[in-house]
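User: structure tokens for this one?
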Amino acid sequence: MLMSSGEKEAKLAYGPNSFRVMRPGQYVLCAVSGVQVPLEELRYWSVDLQEPYASAETATQRLNADT
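Assistant:
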């Protein structure tokens, strides 16, 4: 996915029920796939690893890789 000229990657702090914006932006990069995830669509992340995921499947894939 290509960024439009005004879009920037956000920096977030991930909590158990929400995230806090540390650096404003429009998206984060999925830690597994590298896909851009718009902040308004971000539903999956790891509090322990402090990383976002594009979908439940990628979150599960990442968490299963650690076991």
